[in-house]
Amino acid sequence: MRKLRGLRARLVFNLTRLRGLWQRLRGSLHRRGLAGTVQRALRELRRSRPPVVAVAGAPAEQAAYTDITLPAAAQPQVSIVIPVYNKIAYTLACLNSLAEHAGTATFEVIVVDDCSSDETPERLADVDGLRTIRNAQNLGFVGSCNAGAAAARGDFVLFLNNDTVVTPGWLEALLRCFAEEPDAGLVGAKLVYPDGRLQEAGGIVFRDGSGWNYGRFDDPSDPRYNFRREADYCSGAAILLRRELFESLGGFDSRYAPAYYEDTDLAFAVRAAGLKVYFEPQSTVIHFEGISAGTDTGSGMKRYQVVNREKFLAKWQSALALQPAPIADPEWAPRAATFRRDKRLLIIDACTPTPDQDSGSLRMVNLMRLLRALGWQVTFFADNRLYVDGYTPALQALGVEVLYAPQMNDPIRLFRQRGGEFDAILLSRHYIAINYLGLARLYAPQARLIFDTVDLHYLREQRAAELEGSDELRRKAERTRAQELKLIRECDATVVVSPVEQTLLARELPQARVEILSNVHEVYGCRRRYEQRQDLVFVGSFQHPPNEDAMLWFAREILPRLRESLPGVKLHVIGQPVPESLREFAGDDFVLHGFIADLEPYMDGCRVSVAPLRYGAGVKGKVNMAMSYGLPVVATPAAVEGMHIQAGSDVLVAADAEAFAAAIVRLYGDAQLWSELSANGLANVERHFSFDAAKKALARILD
Questions:
Q1: How far is Cα 686 from Cα 526, in angstroms, rounded to an integer?
Q2: At what angle do helices 545-553 and 457-468 cross, to 10 degrees?
Q3: Which of 272, 248, 238 lies closest to 145, judged by CA?
């Protein structure tokens, strides 16, 4: 019976998806033509590959490591402390990798020689830039680390095993975690075996004091191990923390001398101090585990792993009571690894968000930030299941588990295996949501199902059909309307971005729960005065048809009027891909920039933002964003619909080309009006589109 149900689910999923793809193809061919459709498909399916997993062979002969020169900053940001006992070939390989992969962070290297009996003292003396401490007597790992930290001069102290090899960007990634996570107390790297297998993606500690190296022997490129998250501990083979904090905690606890459980104890002490322990997957360190201490827990140094567990249990009994119970099934490990996040949400969207390219992506990424702040663990996958350079790692750095190919090629298997763990599922955009509605209900019946319209597509399509007088577009709008209303009826809640859409749906489906969850913006404030600015700006993705129509209208009907009243004033058109239809208008006063990663120079430097949209739906991010910088806006009624705008006070609004041009000329030359609109626009964003406003709405929807 279960197999039949699974086969039926797969058949329905594939048929629904094929039907949706065909309808989207027809719509794209009508709107863009064959060449434009092919270009759009190629952009959407452009495949990137996750970073290649680092591998390393055994260290070369000692003679191979000559002329090692390490950075020796007088005021280093980081002090790297490496305790050593013999094994000089591994130590030299470690030092060589530090020299080879020295990046932008300033650091010093302190090697603590714990009475080595091989060539360690002589060979270390040949390494330029190295600080060496030789213990008078053998202190073990704990004592040597504490001795090295006592001599450190950096703001941070990093403990690194001598049987490690670092990789490019490893240190910068650890520091970036501290910069982006104000509550970070200790950050650990991803540890990989020399053969490329994963050794540890942070550690799990169970309430009996036992632990797991999460992901051990697995694929280090697996998405499960590549998002930043809190960890119970990180192996002392590569951990970073502020030197001041390490000193305030008394260093590594000497009760664990000579070694073992001191790193776990330190992680618990960091949490007891009110800070968090993070695993940072973008920092990869290759670790030749067991070189120094072996692997036999019944003899040698390794026996202290058993002895010190009892000491650890006694010291942290109350804290351990809050840890998860030991588990035997590795399938439960992901849940145990993120147990501090007791609420779990799956998000499915069309593509990986590109927040510097379109408003919908910016909204989605900011919603993920808010979900994390509300204590949710977010899992995300795009319907195309692609890894996207830059954008996928950015989500992972927010603590989002991003699933992608080749590890995640089958959504049905994902729902079958993991559907039961999600408390809520958010399906974004009707043409994506319709594919996953049945899977969510079948395999995740406990999850609250939320349909995120992004904007009401059928409303936008109806308006486009009216503007163009197209029967084909009217039929498409009716198909979209039927699909969106079906989703709204069958989901537990629907979110829209404007009160206009909420009111419309209240008439269409009065029994449905429809909530407003609008755009989310940082409020940057006005950073340049009126007289320090010049020119106009338009920002919008040209994958969104209303933006192309808006710029064609502006170029044909508004720009000629402006040339008479504001000669020399330029319109900066920012967005990609640049449509061929606009290229004939390009010139000194109609500047087609395409994609620009950093919009701040235009938000801070231009005098007026324009939003000449003749149709659309939802809330316009271009208007929100301009107002968040205190940049006044001239817009059409369609561009400010549902935005709580006071026309003439927050934004100048004009419906026809003549009035639109006149509004630009008026605002461009009136410093007092400009200042009023700047201040009122900022207040509007703060009230309705800030993180605080969205956080309240999101909490209400998920409560």
A1: 13
A2: 40
A3: 238
- C-alpha 324: how far from chain center: 27
Strands 652-653 and 633-635: parallel
Interior/surface letters 632-659, b for 16+ CB within 10 angstroms, e for the rest: bbbbbebbbbbbebeeeebbbbbeebee
608, 671 Cβ separation under 8 angstroms:
no
User: Taking the CA atoms of the chain, what radius of gyration do you get in angstroms?
Assistant: 29
Residue keyed to tokens 């260290």? 59
Q: From CA 136, how far away is CA 115, in angstroms rounded?
A: 7
Strands 536-539 and 571-574: parallel
Q: Which two tokens stand for residue 684?
A: 């509007």
pLDDT tens digits along 139-183: 999 999 999 999 999 999 999 999 999 999 999 999 999 999 999
**Distance separating alpha carbons of residues 220 and 100, to the nearest angstrom:** 23
Closest-CA residue to 97 (of 169, 200, 205): 169
> d(Cα 363, Cα 297) in Å, to the nearest integer?
51
d(CA 64, CA 402): 41
d(CA 693, CA 703): 16
Q: Is the whole model's pTM more than 0.90, yes or no?
A: no
Question: Please, what are the domains in the chain?
Answer: 2-34+337-516 (3.40.50.720), 67-334 (3.90.550.10), 530-694 (3.40.50.2000)
